[in-house]
Write a structure and sequence with these properties.
alpha/beta, seven-stranded mixed beta sheet, two-stranded antiparallel ribbon, 6 helices
Length: 191
């Protein structure tokens, strides 16, 4: 799909066709959404679809998860006219932080951290990431927010897979993602 082309009928998820499959092997995610972010209308429609379920909900801040969640999170924060908080992989913040270990989608042990002065008790945070595959990264972000007294107002991602971790998140938090129900099984099987 051309990066300037906008289809006449823009149904939810039309921009998913902009994503590219992994051509570099098993150390990478199976699909790369970054080309979607290059398409002006695709990015706008993706963010609108992510925010639609939260219309009218009290949200005080948007937090994006390192690194691709920064793109969608910052875009969502701009649309909502809210502040943006970066939840980082360990070692990138030069201020006091709270750390949370987790296992990512590839099975690697990592540590996520957030600055301790950005979340006050009761602050309602919308968590945004590019993808929720196994749920480990998002669960670490949830734990960081909640340990600091924040409230998870919702979870938004291009795709929340129907994995054990994805189901755990959906059962406990209001969620939004961009994959239409008819396509969800293909995304869950990485097709």
């Amino acid at each position: 799909m051309d990066l300037c082309h906008v289809p006449a009928a823009r149904e939810k998820g039309w921009y998913l066709a902009l994503m590219a499959p992994n051509v570099k092997g098993p150390n990478y995610a199976w699909l790369d959404p970054s080309r979607l972010y290059c398409h002006p209308q695709g990015l706008q429609d993706c963010v609108a679809d992510l925010l639609q379920p939260f219309q009218g909900d009290p949200i005080d801040m948007v937090a994006g998860i390192d690194a691709m969640g920064f793109i969608l999170g910052a875009a969502a924060a701009a649309v909502l006219r809210k502040g943006f908080l970066a939840i980082r992989k360990a070692g990138h913040l030069c201020v006091q932080t709270l750390a949370q270990p987790y296992t990512d989608y590839s099975g690697r042990e990592k540590v996520m951290e957030v600055r301790t002065d950005a979340i006050s008790p009761g602050l309602r945070i919308l968590l945004v990431d590019q993808w929720v595959e196994t749920g480990g990264t998002m669960r670490a972000a949830i734990q960081l927010v909640e340990q600091l007294g924040g409230v998870v107002a919702g979870v938004a991602a291009v795709c929340i897979e129907d994995s054990e971790g994805g189901r755990w998140i959906r059962e406990r938090y209001k969620c939004a993602h961009c994959v239409p129900p008819g396509l969800q099984p293909r995304f869950d099987r990485h097709q």
